[in-house]
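Second attempt. The first submission of protein-ribulosamine 3-kinase had a stray character pasted in from the spreadsheet, which I only caught after the job came back as garbage. Lesson logged: always re-copy from the clean sequence file. Corrected sequence (199 aa) follows.
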Amino acid sequence: MFGFHLKPLRGNLSLETTWNASWSDYFVQIFRRSLALDQKVNGTRKDLRRLVELAITHVVPQVLGPLEADGRPIKPSLIHEDLWGGNIGTDSKTGEIYIFDASAHYAHYEMEIAIWRPHPLSVVGSGAYVSEYLAQMGASEPVEQFYDRQKLYSTCTVMHAAACHNGDWFREEIRENPRYLLEKYAPGLAVAGTCDDAS
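This time the job returned cleanly.
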């Protein structure tokens, strides 16, 4: 099952981790929770709400659905969920690397690195770290959709971060990822406008 028996905090806000057997359905529940948090903290933005709902309807089935095509299972993996440079340290006596401040839950393992894309204070967003992650963990099939899955996962992660940090660093990522994905997977939909339109 995907989820967790507690509602862990990521930053100062809780994740929606109600157990779910379907990865796509579980992702949608945390995606909608992230949107709700962002709208509550940063104000309602009709265009963002519309982009998220269009992504749920048109992108999630095409980007997450194939993960379980042809009888492939997605094994729930316990992920840290807030893995960036500020939550990684080195023991000064032993040189051992340690991580802390986890927002752990069971998810698709690739979601672990979604936070790396936009984080302005973390070197782990560089291509070298993603390349090493892929060398160690591999990408799920279909491999060619890995970066599209990252854009989708990152949008969810970024909306939660925008709620935690009053949106200051994350506006572009929230706006651009779903637009890119909708243009690719649902061409012809009207996705113009800005995320800053208040209702």
